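We were asked to recover a plausible sequence for a given structure. The inputs and outputs are reproduced exactly as logged, with field labels preserved.

PROBLEM: sequence recovery
POSITIONS: 113
GIVEN STRUCTURE:
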């Protein structure tokens, strides 16, 4: 996907396309993980769809749950979803920043030939 160190740095248009593709992949990943949270809160915790969306969004955003969870299953799901969301955050940041970091490092390590 990226050029090698013996290749010239990619033009700005290629770099912009890489940024757009990375952002698209990150958005799809976030939507997929949000769907998992919404479904879990709806079916495991018994919340309605809007409250499920709110709780899943808040945990995925790092804010924490909104509604009080009363069942053990709901509490276990919320804790696992929170841990999973933290890992997804790290993955999304890696996906989004990889073209930027690569371009910076490529400028420093590019062969002069």
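RECOVERED SEQUENCE:
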């Amino acid at each position: 996907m990226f050029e090698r160190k013996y290749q010239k740095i990619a033009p700005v248009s290629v770099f912009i396309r890489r940024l757009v593709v990375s952002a698209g992949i990150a958005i799809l990943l976030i939507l997929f993980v949000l769907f998992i949270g919404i479904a879990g809160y709806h079916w495991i915790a018994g919340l309605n769809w809007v409250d499920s969306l709110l709780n899943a969004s808040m945990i995925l955003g790092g804010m924490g749950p909104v509604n009080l969870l009363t069942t053990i299953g709901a509490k276990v799901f919320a804790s696992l979803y929170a841990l999973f969301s933290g890992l997804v955050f790290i993955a999304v940041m890696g996906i989004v920043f990889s073209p930027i970091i690569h371009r910076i490092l490529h400028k420093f390590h590019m062969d002069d030939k």
